[in-house]
Amino acid sequence: MESGQISDYGFLADGRSAALVDAAGSVNWWCPGRFDAPSVFGRLLDDDAGHWSIRPEVDFTVERSYLEDTLVLRTVFRTAQGEVALTDALAFEPGSRGHDIGMHPPQVLVRSVQGLSGAVPMRVHYRPRFEYGRTIAYLVEREDMLEAIAGAARLTFRGSVRLTCGDDGDAAATFTVRAGTTHNFTLGYAPTYDAPLPEVPDADQTIADTVAGWRSWAAEHDYQGLYAEEVRRSGLVVQGMTYRPSGAVVASVTTSLPEKLGGDRNYDYRYVWVRDFSHTLRALWRSACFDEVRRQFAWLGRAMGRVGDQPVPIMYGVLGERDLTEHRLDQLGGYRDSPPVVTGNDAWRQRQNDIYGAAMDAAWLMRDQLEPFDRDVYHLLRVLADQAEQDWKQPDAGMWEERGVQHHHVSSKVECWVALDRAVRFGDQLGGPQDLARWTAARDEVRAAILERGWSDRLQSYTGIFDSDELDASVLVMPLVGFLRADDPRMRSTVRAVERRLSHDGLLRRWDGDPAGFVICSFWLVSCLALAGERDRAHALFRDLAGRVNDLGLFAEQIDQQTGEQLGNFPQAFSHIGLINAAGVLTDVEQDPTLRECGMPPAHFTPPRR
């Protein structure tokens, strides 16, 4: 593969799907239709799984950037013969603006090559591979287009340069770009059956319209806090990972990018986790995405449906699908020869008791919009509280989704406390006196158990599992959800222990033995420091972490503590959400240096001391 690292990629999105473009001008990932659809370009995971490259035929250097307030990518190639700019976009529907962007995209990938100086020889290589590289399509020339049809997918390629078809299902051409000239290429997707030919509009007009669409959306989200540039970029990334028809935010747009090269922790993240839900809503709220907050909560209610006595599913597809059974794609060698490659994620079968708190905390955040409760919301919140009451004593797979084993994870108990605490705060809007009494009793019982069994005298720290001496960064959520104040002596001691044992150069691993720093955990540390009064350290750590993005401002899931290489699925919503929320906490503390409250407006509350 030409690109050696995950951080070499830029990210394009249209509200339904995403594409990744490497620094050499090759589209190596695109799953048109929806984020978790089969790929038509999959070289990200195997050299033979399809790509579309446009690049100089001579040696070049690269400088990349997004056009301001957009996810439209501009790559400038500099050669001895001159300079060329390549602009890439996944198109929005014509004229869509503000919160309408991405609702009905034409599913068109647009690429425009503009000569800036000199005369630069270029090469375009188009190599579609359908169904994750399983199927090679016949390329058929039809007047002004090149059509590829295989199975359920159809691609229509148009360009100002005529491509020559090869014998192995690819097409290529060479051309020269001179200063002041432009060559445009468009690729449209449509299902093979029961759909018209993919619409392929004018490239220049489409790029201009897509730029205007992104900027109109950005203009409606006026974040006023600290680190506005970083928050603005991360807000755009989270928006790009939103499936606009439903409002669901996927964890990432890729599958099987490894947490460790040569390891086996390769997962499909193109789904929506309830665990991430309250963090996502807080980030959207922080970045002034109020409409998105409302749509997110509506999506959750529809996805969960009428909840009965069975455990609530912990994750869903973008339209609320529950069965996400995992399948291996053995035809793909994996990113940098790191198999397995999988679709689906068997974590959907797990018990994760933290989801009760995630959903209830989101409702508490949204209370001004939810009250008075609709009948379905009322039923959902009552069931979540009741299940937290009855399930908190059960072991589970935990926040990090351990497979094949269950433990009494402290972070899961904390989130059960959150569910019960928020239910009690809702008061008689949610339950009668008997309900409130038993929720209060259960909340206090959970709290007492955590304070006793989650604390290690030997480590002088809260730990990841009851009655253990194993440190885990997940306990840093305790101040962030209001379970303990950040300046509580035991919480301060926990932060010191976690930093000492799990942190290196500002990057925090989840547990001892975790192969790399987990980005959102590091941002949790920023928030804990800020809320504990260590503002200077918090700002310094935030700036260091924010500087670890790639050249386009994108985070993966993890960062190698030694090399700084980004690892895991990319881009990662959780990482960008962590940045937004940490910037918000820093803003709160700067505006009120005495602030020791946790949460965020309008959901401030002061947790009790131990």
Instruction: Kindly report the average pLDDT value.
Output: 91
Number of strands: 27
How would a crystallographer describe the biggest sheet? 14 strands, antiparallel
Summing up helix and strand content along with how strands pair, one would put the structural category as: alpha+beta
Describe this structure in words.
The chain has 610 residues and is α+β, with helices and mostly antiparallel strands. 31% of the residues lie in helices and 20% in strands. The model is unreliable at 596-610 (pLDDT under 50). This is Glycoside hydrolase family 15 protein. GO terms for molecular function: hydrolase activity. It comes from Micromonospora zamorensis. Keywords: Hydrolase.
Give the SSE layout.
Blueprint: E1 10-13, E2 18-21, E3 26-30, E4 51-56, E5 61-66, E6 73-79, E7 82-90, E8 108-127, H1 130-133, E9 138-142, E10 145-150, E11 153-159, E12 164-165, E13 171-178, E14 182-191, H2 203-219, H3 228-240, E15 242-243, E16 248-249, E17 272-273, H4 277-286, H5 290-304, E18 315-316, E19 327-328, E20 342-343, H6 355-365, H7 367-370, H8 375-391, H9 410-426, H10 433-453, E21 455-456, E22 461-462, H11 477-480, H12 489-502, E23 503-504, E24 507-508, E25 517-518, H13 519-531, H14 535-546, E26 558-559, E27 566-567, H15 573-591
Antiparallel strand pairs: 1-2, 2-3, 3-4, 4-8, 5-6, 6-7, 7-8, 8-13, 8-14, 9-10, 10-11, 11-14, 12-13, 15-16, 17-18, 19-20, 21-22, 23-24, 25-26, 26-27
Helix pairs in contact: 3-15, 4-5, 4-6, 4-15, 6-8, 6-9, 8-9, 9-10, 13-14, 13-15, 14-15
